[in-house]
Sequence to fold (489 residues):
Amino acid sequence: MAIGVVGHDYYRGKNFLVSASILSARAAIADVDKKLITIETGLLTLATSRLLTPDNLGKFNQQAAQAAFSLNVDAITLNDSDGQTLIDTRQPDLWTTASDEQTIKLQRLLKIGEPVISDLLIPSANGRPQIKVVVPMRQNGKVTYELGAVVYANRMQDLLVQRKIPADRIVGIFDSSGTFVARSHEASRFVGAKGSSAILAYLRLPADEGSFENVTVEGISVSSSLSRSPISRWSVGIGIPTDIFLRDLWHTIWWMMLALAILLLCSLTIAWRIGTSINRSIHSLIAPALALGGGANVNIPTLGLFEADEVGTALNQASVLLQQAQHDAQHDVLTGMANRALFNAIMQQQLMIAKRASEHLAVLYIDLDGFKNINDTYGHEMGDALLKAVATRIGSVIRECDLAARLGGDEFAVLMIQTGKHGPASVAGKLIKTLSAPFQIDGMQLEISASIGGAIYPESGDTVVGLLRVADEAMYQAKQRGRKNYVIA
Fold:
């Protein structure tokens, strides 16, 4: 048990931390998307400036510098359709271009005519990692200008600091290719490098977030949680070093061992004193419990042990409830007659007996004529009283070996066993005569009648469902002939 508790606690704690890491990664990538989308929105707004004309580029440069400050980016650039830089809000000596391969890739994406968020770019001149957000500007269906924002990777590093993720977590922001854009540990060493093979493999999967075991690029074993943006396809990964889980595991194990030693000592000291009393009382509950399981009524006396007496009282109450539940489950609450479930079960048993003994068996399906009118005129209470009286009259006509049941509403059924071919017709006639006599209920005289359909085994069918269906159809034939009629199929 102790090993199970320790293992459960370990995996529960691990799963909790992993789940929390997924939530943190999801929040972090939301921050990244928010920043990138804010920059993109700012560029689209800036692109509507009236100063963006060949004659006003100087004034537009000032406006762009103010926009760069507001958007918290490092530079705003303006290129013509050939990629020639027209405006760069940085000092000219700080301007560097990306490698030819990166520039060609960016130009290819911009030809689509949609805003582009680049992956991490490392310019060939000074090697300072940066990201570009570029929006194309169209005139007459052609891209004439490309308005862009340059964001150095250290600004993405600031996003990790703002999240206040625990210092022992290894956090990284990846672009869509799996390249580190920012990292909580050794950023200067790994920004611009690819993530671990496990990270890259996971990024090739369709899932946008999840957790998996991983070894970081510096060789630390971690449990990684990753969330990927459906917008930018960038990702944030959070790794929890395995040592953290093992540290907590050993801490739990030592406390569990101490608690076990104390528990065993106390338990062995107390157990021998109370064992005999408990044994005697508990054994006294075995026989009544077995009897209750068999459906018998039990009555357990006081046993002298508080807990055992509580169980005994509960068993006594359960016995009463079981008897009541068994009765309620098989009988109609209003009339006390068998319900449909009990009727079908007994009919199935009697049908098997009739098959073995080659005897006849009959079922009568009874529907009251005029009951609905009385129920609607005088109310449900009068209708319920009438149904009880009908049940009493049906019971007075049939034999003790026969079974009467209320199937629902104003429909009743009678199961007749060991009957000849003419017995059902005789009983059906008596029932119609009895049920057609006036009823005196609460000082009022009520009159109804009955339509009865009958089915006989084996002539009408050899299954419960088949016989009931034939009897029901015969009852409807009797109704079509008028009130106070019966039809035996």
